[in-house]
């Protein structure tokens, strides 16, 4: 049948990409349909129930700054919060949260069900309606035809999914869920470049069978961090600890002896898995000299005994999984509640996408999430938000929003994918961003909330809170800049234990730049201090890192000013220092006319463009 209502945007898949896409499209006022296999699995975490981590929390905060759901759900579902790299600089600091799987999912579903302009429907999308090179809608497994102006595909690991446990294989999108084979076949018939990737998950363990007295406890941080700019500690449920265990020589022997029964080593899986989240068999093979690997035993929730043993993802047969788990100190009597497995799935070469995440071959069709070769909830959610927004903007006759690399990690990720593609599941790291001092997790709201407001993604409550924060920051920075401390004064004496006697008068803002002093030290001499930690953090970071931040901004401005600079037709790229051979060959083959054109060539990095600029300036 033809469904009687027409939609502006249809999102296929209610995972992390799909839910952010649906919410973003609907927030901008577009009539949106979220079509998914199963409403009960909306926002389901296929693997570890953890959100954030290095590079990833930057994406969560960006989603949040643009009005998205992930950060809010994390504050409602988080049962252990930690700040990673707390002693390092703010650019690489990251928030990592262990979530209660059920509470997180419930929070996402609540937001979806209460979002204006958003309709949910449970059924598999089996076919796309494509006419004259443009998508017009979707046909479900039940034969219902939904029509729309744009469609966003967020199908995760479900396209042609095959699950492996030892030598056994079965079709599936993840354990317990069917694959999306009809849609996979339909997409393979369209002119996209398709590849296969794989990922895996560890067996889950019943906590009642673990001897915690023999494991090290890892509590969360105090004070407990918060993920969303709108979040508060009061929202967090009870907080719990994780525990640390270790593999040993016996564990490694068990794995080595059974490698021929691993689908990865026997050749039945050929696709590439996530480099930074390898299976335990991979770790033992690749780091053969290591006699032990760390395992974090992480609770899956407050109302379950299941634990996620982070670090022993495996697709070995069940008997080997049980033996390897039971060889670990503290887990000698462990009961496995669910076996670990690996899954192979189709992904599409992201170089076939535009920066808006629209496909180059079919108009009005967008891809987001694992389908683009990424791995991780955060990477998926951020792409989903962007694709949902741009699908809605297309339906509204507006131009796409494509964040730059110096604006957001979202811009870095999409630019990386579209320019370079990926041969392995792509995950975010701070090292991927060349302007990471500007793209901190603490300032995602300052970078993006005003843009999100203009795009129609940010509601009044969030924008009011943001404006109050910004006003407080500016006022406090001005106050500290206008307050002087005289040498020998009572105020100077208060600071003496930390920095010695002041030789002359100083502005408080300049004193705040000193590594020995923090905001509370300098503000206390005025007898007046702010209480909002987020505002204090900003005032402090902006004062302490001002010099570096200004320099990075100047680099960006310089590169942008020189984008129209012409590259001589005779330029010998082999003579440019620092360029990789691959980039030299690409530039030589493409012969770009300007720096901007060079930067748009797939695989030519912003760092390479900077080297070109230096060369041009030196050699005219
Ligand atoms: P998914 O979360 O997979 O969601 C896809 C959604 O689309 C599902 O709701 C599905 O039902 C629906 N759907 C699919 N096809 C259709 C259709 N035709 N019609 C209707 N609905 C459809 N990430 C890591 O970062 N580290 C890891 O270690 C890790 N391990 C993983 C292990 C396993 C076994 C799996 C399955 C995933 C793992 N991941 C890991 C990846 C992580 O789960 C994904 O990156 C993330 O969930 C991707 O989000 P997504 O929205 O793109 O897709």
In short:
By secondary structure, the protein is of the alpha+beta class.
Describe this structure in words.
This protein has 620 residues and is α+β, with helices and mostly antiparallel strands. Helix content is 36%, strand content 18%. It is built from 20 helices and 22 strands. Strands 1, 2, 6, 7, 8, 9 and 20 form a 7-stranded mixed sheet that branches. The chain has a 6-stranded antiparallel sheet with strand order 14-15-16-17-13-18, with no helix packed on it. A 4-stranded antiparallel sheet has the order 11-10-19-12, with no helix packed on it. Strand 7 (125-131) and strand 8 (134-140) form a beta hairpin. Helix 2 (56-65) crosses helix 11. The longest helix has 23 residues, at 460-482. The N and C termini lie far apart (66 Å). The relative contact order is 0.13. The structure holds flavin-adenine dinucleotide. Flavin-adenine dinucleotide is lined by residues 12-18, 35-38, 41, 46-47, 124-125, 154-158, 173-174, 177, 180, 183, 199-201, 274, 277, 343, 369-370, 375-377, 380, 427. FAD binds at residues 13-18. This is tRNA uridine 5-carboxymethylaminomethyl modification enzyme MnmG.
Which features characterize this protein?
620 residues; alpha+beta; 7-stranded mixed β-sheet; 6-stranded antiparallel β-sheet; 22 strands; binds flavin-adenine dinucleotide
């Amino acid at each position: 049948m033809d469904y009687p209502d027409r939609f502006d945007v249809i999102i296929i898949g209610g995972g992390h990409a799909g839910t952010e896409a649906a919410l973003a499209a609907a927030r901008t006022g577009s009539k949106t349909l979220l079509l998914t296999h199963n409403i009960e699995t909306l926002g389901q975490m296929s693997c570890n129930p953890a959100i954030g981590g290095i590079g990833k929390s930057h994406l969560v905060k960006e989603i949040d700054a643009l009005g998205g759901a992930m950060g809010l759900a994390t504050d409602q579902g988080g049962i252990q919060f930690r700040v990673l790299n707390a002693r390092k600089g703010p650019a690489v600091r990251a928030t990592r949260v262990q979530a209660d799987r059920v509470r997180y999912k419930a929070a996402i579903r609540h937001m979806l069900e209460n979002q204006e302009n958003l309709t949910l429907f449970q059924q598999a999308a089996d076919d796309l309606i494509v006419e004259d090179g443009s998508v017009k809608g979707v046909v479900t497994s039940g034969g219902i035809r939904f029509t729309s102006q744009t469609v966003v595909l967020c199908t995760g690991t479900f396209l042609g999914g095959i699950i492996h446990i030892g030598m056994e294989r079965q079709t599936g999108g993840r354990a317990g869920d069917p694959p999306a084979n009809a849609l996979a076949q339909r997409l393979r018939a369209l002119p996209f470049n398709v590849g296969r990737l794989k990922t895996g998950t560890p067996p889950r363990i019943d906590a009642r069978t673990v001897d915690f007295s023999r494991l090290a406890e890892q509590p969360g941080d105090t004070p407990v961090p918060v993920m969303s700019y709108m979040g508060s500690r009061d929202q967090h449920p009870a907080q719990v600890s994780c525990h640390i265990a270790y593999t040993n020589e016996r564990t490694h022997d068990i794995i080595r002896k059974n490698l021929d029964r691993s689908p990865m080593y026997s050749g039945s899986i050929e696709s590439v898995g996530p480099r930074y989240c390898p299976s335990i068999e991979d770790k033992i093979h690749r780091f053969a000299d290591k006699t032990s690997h760390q395992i974090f035993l992480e609770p899956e929730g407050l109302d379950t005994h299941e634990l996620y043993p982070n670090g022993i993802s495996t697709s070995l047969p069940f008997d080997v999984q049980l033996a390897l788990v039971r060889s670990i100190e503290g887990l000698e009597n462990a009961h496995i509640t669910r076996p670990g497995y690996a899954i192979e799935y189709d992904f599409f070469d992201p170089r076939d996408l535009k920066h808006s995440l629209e496909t180059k071959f079919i108009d009005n069709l967008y891809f987001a999430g694992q389908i683009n070769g990424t791995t991780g909830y955060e990477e998926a959610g951020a792409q989903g938000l962007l694709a949902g927004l741009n699908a809605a903007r297309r339906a509204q006759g507006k131009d796409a929003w494509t964040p730059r690399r110096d604006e957001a990690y979202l811009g870095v990720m999409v630019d990386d994918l579209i320019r370079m593609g990926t041969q392995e599941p792509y995950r975010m790291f701070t090292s991927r961003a060349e302007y990471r001092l500007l793209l901190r997790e603490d300032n995602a709201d300052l970078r993006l909330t005003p843009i999100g407001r203009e795009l129609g993604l940010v509601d009044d409550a969030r924008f009011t809170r943001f404006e109050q924060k910004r006003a407080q920051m500016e006022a406090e920075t001005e106050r500290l800049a206008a307050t002087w401390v005289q040498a020998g004064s009572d105020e100077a004496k208060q600071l003496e234990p930390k920095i010695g006697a002041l030789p002359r008068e100083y502005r408080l803002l300049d004193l705040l730049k000193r590594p020995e002093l923090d905001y509370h030290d300098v503000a206390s001499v005025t007898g007046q201090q702010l209480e909002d930690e987020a505002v204090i953090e900003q005032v402090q970071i902006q004062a302490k890192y001002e010099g570096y931040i200004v320099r990075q901004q100047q680099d960006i401005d310089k590169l942008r000013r020189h984008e129209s600079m012409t590259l001589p037709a005779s330029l010998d790229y082999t003579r440019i220092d620092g360029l990789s051979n691959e980039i030299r060959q690409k530039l030589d083959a493409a012969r770009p006319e300007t720096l901007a054109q060079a930067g748009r060539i797939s695989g030519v990095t912003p760092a390479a463009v900077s080297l070109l600029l230096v060369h041009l300036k030196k050699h005219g």
